[in-house]
Amino acid sequence: MPKLASVAKRLLVGRPFRTDRLAHTLLPKRVALPVFASDAMSSVAYAPEEILLTLSVAGISAYAFSPWIAIVVVLLMTAVVLSYRQNVHAYPSGGGDYEVATVNHGRRWGLVVGSALLVDYVLTVAVSISSAAANIGSVVPFVATHKVEFAVGAIVLLTAMNLRGVRESGTLFAIPTYAFVFGILAMIVWGVTRVVLLDDEVRAESADFTLLEEGDQLTGMALVFLVLRAFSSGSAALTGVEAISNGVPAFRKPKSRNAATTLLLMGIIAITMFLGLIALAGMSGAKIAEHPAEQLVDAPPDYEQKTLVAQLANAVFTGFDPAVWWIIFFTGLILVLAANTAFNGFPVLGSILAQDRYLPRQLHTRGDRLAYSNGIVGLAAFAIILVVSFDAEVTRLIQLYIVGVFVSFVLSQSGMIRHWNRLLRDGPDEAAARRMRRSRAINAFGLTMTSAVLVIVLVAKFTHGAWIALAAMGTIYALMTAIRRHYDRVAAELAEAERNRDPAVLPSRNHVIVLVSKLHLPTRRALAYARATRPDVLEAVTVNVDDADTRALVAQWEKEDFSVPLKVVESPYREITKPVLDYVKRMRTDNPRDVVTVYIPEYVVGRWWEQLLHNQSALRLKGRLLFQPGVMVTSVPWQLASAQRVRDRDVTAPGAVRRGLSGKDKR
Fold this sequence. Notes:
This is APC family permease. Keywords: Membrane, Transmembrane, Transmembrane helix. InterPro entries: AA/rel_permease1, APC_K+_Transporter. It holds the Pfam family AA_permease_2. By secondary structure, the protein is of the alpha/beta class. The chain folds into two domains: about 25-485, Amino acid/polyamine transporter I; about 510-665, Rossmann fold. The chain is about 65% helix and about 5% strand. It is built from 27 helices and seven strands. Strand 3 (about 510-515), helix 21 and strand 4 (about 535-545) form a beta-alpha-beta unit. Helix 2 crosses helix 9 (about 165-195) and helix 2 runs parallel beside helix 12. The two termini are about 25 Å apart. The model is unreliable at about 655-665 (pLDDT under 50).
């Protein structure tokens, strides 16, 4: 079984990389763009649709607000992109928003940003994958009826790809990302050309349906609230912008400049596609209803509402199915791959938080392919839970979305303003001061915009699910604080013990106990090892759980005339662990300055099912003895034949010498 597991791991992940290959995993801009910007670019596939979907509640007349909402979203995106270009130059270490907030606002605000981004990364995966299921389901009925299964499978596939390393996954994702961008831009250009230059009609399949408003006509504050809600949903187009600032260390040198250039390219592409899709939706008369069966009049009874992108592709490329399939296929694929932004951001942020002792230290460990494997697996697990819990419904999941990212936007921009103020107080030269004041103005504009959007999002989406995201952020904040307290408590405890340590005080004696169940070779080896340590007191102990077996053991022990006394501990309830613990405690109570060392003979097996048949009592004993003060536990291994085969295979495996085994070691 271990061999099978090793082979499966190699097939899934690939051969391990040496640590000195870390520099070879750095990304050029052409690969970094699809790796870090796929989320921001792909969000244009569902952000325009969410605007129309929200406005549909008020009927077709409310669609007149969509261009204005789009313009405000673009203005917001421009402000955020320009602001983050300042971030990547000022903080190129990869901490991103977390580092900016921690340095300029303090540890607590840094934790707020950290918890917000962790929640947002998980939601990025869930929303992107669910949107991919909806788009692909528009043309593949099987996916439409099995969205949850498709989404879970896609997350598992992405996890496997990312476990192979950032560089490898980025290369795999580059082609579909660029194919998606090319397809959407081509659709926009051809659609606008047909309408504007060729005076042709582009009609979506839903253009002839009548869109009815739900309930009574919305007026006054109700309509304003609806427009604000539509704007907050459309602001999902900004998700992923922060990923580049968190991933600066993954870029090739010069890191900051390459990251800033990639960020600018991402912003230009995303804004162009977002505005183009909104414009095409208006030209083609496409309608997206929250409840199609009730709102879309004149629609056939069996009408299945397609996504906005699918409707536009069919309208623009009428009669040319290959182009339609290209758009739909790569839109679905890019939405799956968009989650890769989170798979790169979440593990890096988790590693930084772990290094600062706010998360378990295992998250700071790189795997075989130099990726943060534990963080990747953790992100996948949480995303799968969300997808299953919300049935992979984008409309339900998106209500939880973007709260976290705008919390980080606000704290990051306000932190950058403090950063520039601090540098300006140091009295730089006039040219540098002008640059700093210009950067501060950009960040101030970004802070104003993102703060307004955060308020709108909280007001408009709180009762629709945003409270869940806030509750998750609060829970993660409390958890990280508790983890840091634990690590600090352990460090303080060790420091206190070090200060109070008296190097002259040593244990009075070493009292050694060898646990015996049978008088076989493992027991004889344990006795030999125990004798070799020259203890002050050496004794063997057995627990009487069966009188006949115990009498036979004692008789054999006396017959062989061991120089080590064998003590029999009674166990009226046939337990093994508690009688041994009680005996060890008595030794410590009678001689508190003695160290008690317990030797436990143990089988080493090579198959997983053999472990179930051996060592169960030994494992329980070790687990309990470790909590006893002044007690040392030593395992004395006895390798069975199956374990020897595993050892021989590891030594003779290809690359054993490369991993550091000399010829003498192999012999």
